[in-house]
Amino acid sequence: MPLTLLHNATTLVTMDAQRREIADGALTFDGQEILWVGRSEDLPLHLAAEVTQRIDARGKLVLPGFVNTHHHFYQTLTRVIPAAQDAVLFDWLKILYPIWAELTPGDVQISTQLALTELLLSGCTTSSDHHYLWPNGSRLDDQFEAAERVGVRFHGARGSMSLGESAGGLPPDRVTEPEAAILQDCRRVVESFHNPRRFAMRRVVIAPCSPFSVTPELMRESAALARSFGPGMNVHLHTHLAETADEEAFCLEKFGYRPGDYAQELGWTGDDVWHAHCVHLNQPEIENFAATRTGVAHCPTSNMRLASGIAPVRAMRDAGVAVGLGVDGSASNDGSHLLAEVRQCLLLQRLGLSLSKPLGNPKAMTAREALEIATLGGAAILGRDDIGSLAPGMAADIIAFDLNALTYAGGAVHDPVAALVFCQPQPVDLAIINGRLLVKEGVPLNIDLPTLTDNHNRAARALLVRAGRI
Ligand SMILES: [Zn+2]
Fold first, then answer.
1. How far is the CA of 66 from the centre of ligand 1 (A)?
2. Fold designation for 3-64+387-442
3. pTM
4. Which of 95, 122, 311, 338 is the most exposed place for a label (fewest CB within 10 A)?
């Protein structure tokens, strides 16, 4: 394997145990694994002798790649649909379900490629995607194929919906699946794609959609299936939880529990589970999540876009809950810019701890804590010990931003790390995933952006034609 040296970084943010930020930083990696991290001038002689490739990071801020823990890639095809622009979650879903019912395998592939490319250019090197409706023969296989083309580390969450309108659920019956078929396909995709080893590029997550679109039986059986593979297989569980006040009312009325208590009752707590949103957890539910090491994917832009509320991330972190960051589905963001999401995370926590206490607190979230949530936080809730920091033995998932960008002027002089979060988010300058250089000087090396965008937009128009919307 060729030994690569990345050196001369203005600052290298390690996110290691000491949270070192190294001025004039450097690192070496051999294939997929980081061997050494330190100051450029301290490169050991035996490594210097073996270097075959050099990357000059002068003027750059270097960090571990960001981890996206919640998304619905297919929704890039239905961004900004006029009827859904100003709706709350349940109305928004009812407008969009009939369009999503027309998705094809080709739509799943092109939207996966587009969303992952967008994420990559925003500094994301690992992403999960929660895909929960599979019409017209589409399969998780389509996503793994597309993800491999982009080169981002991918945790495909095999989602599902089984509780249709006729049974008291929210989605139309035709986008739901029989529960036996769901469980059978979950087993198939784990056996076909899941790699539990360190540096894995593919993992499978079992992920029924939400309390209002699946039965309690499917939740229980999904958990049993994931755990039946054994702890060494590291098959995780994911769903939406406590996203809106409507959902809280639904859970109380239909199941007799608040959402966090419902999750506990179903066996959906533990270090192999992470829930998206958790806007409406109360203090006892937060403490239970901390005690059971249950993870949370915080999606600030989506929570603002759908007027869902402010997730109590400060209270969660103070209680010891593992929190990662997610951009959420493209039709409720309507973007996949993970660095922008880091900024939203900082700003939203400062705005207020809850709607009943509207006065903000500028100390509620620092730039460095927001970056930690986007790196180490995401790695922890996905169950990975090989990503999220730059240290020997970790994966070579490395990003860099150009501090000479107009928007960082001034800020980069005073505090380059904080400038990345406080100033207007920029596209990534350099991205390396699993030791492969994928973005250089802001340009993706393996993707033709105009062709990708054009193909995607053609698919988006065709989808609306099939749904009878245009
Ligand atoms: Zn979501």
1. 18
2. Urease, subunit C; domain 1 (2.30.40)
3. 0.97
4. 95
